[in-house]
Amino acid sequence: MERTRLRNLGISIGTAPTGPLNAITDVPGVWVGHATVIHDEPRVARTGVTVIVPREGGIGRDYAFAGFHRFNGCGEMTGIHWLEETGLLTSAIALTNTHQIGMVHDALAEYSFTRSHYGAFYLPVVAETFDGWLNDLNALHLTKEHVFEAMSNARGGSVPEGNVGGGTGMICHDFKGGIGTSSRRVISKSGEYTVGALVQTNYGDREQLRIDGVPVGRKLGFDVVPSPWQTPPESSSIIIVVATDAPLLSDQCRRLAQRATTGLARVGGVGHNTSGDLFLAFATGHHIPAGADAPIPLGPMIPHQHLNPFFDATAEAVEEAILNALTSAETMVGYQGRTAYALPLDELQRVMDQYRLKKEM
User: Quick check: pTM over 0.90?
Assistant: First the structure.
């Protein structure tokens, strides 16, 4: 069966409506770009970089309120000390592999100075997960040109998912993982807004995988789809980015980032000891000009008691984004002939149909 998104298989997550693209790019002004590196010579590359670019590239001049949550901290996301100090996102966000987070950081800074004219100070946000099972990680395949490519390719519209960008070499619940995205429309007492999520999935045990509450991983064990591992690792990581166009303040963004944990838990992520589960949320509903030297009129804020629909939307969008990564990713053969097999979509539909029939009886 051709790889596709979850809803194309007749499986819907949650109750809130999606945005028109069911992607983080449903949040106005949010762009996504990828650079994917796949080759076998001179050394095996299965890696890449994904960028999330708020305000159509203008985030370095027009800051956004943001918040961060660490579910488990065996990972890295740069720029977070300053983000937590000020409550502001001031850069694009990049997702890549563990050993090249520094190079991507430097390349984003260079891009900002030479292409975007953001001025003399730019502290990029770059996060990583480990792709060293399928990718010859120590070959350091990525260059600044790949980062520039991802930034130049960043745009609105549909977002490629699965084996692309930073998700190229990633593994999720012992199936091939990668990049996934989803969105929800929020109807609150304070108005209508959009919440979108993008994930880089590289975590989880097969037996813990659940799809819409169904224990799919137990039904699709290693006798059905082989394990990618010779010796299973203790665990790995997931990066989650949540965006909204609502006028949220930084503390409210932090609260949204915390709710990403709920979406992850519904799929089967529990934050194991060596997992890097790092979540960031930003809101574009307020405008904070860089270098402002006078009081900034922010306009209305959403009361905390109106946030529950945003929490629900975040959990649903994260849950579906992870599953879109799984259903979109293709089987990949990588470093030393290792193979990560895709989640079989026909078997997934069979398992889901069985549980539906049981529920109806």
Answer: yes
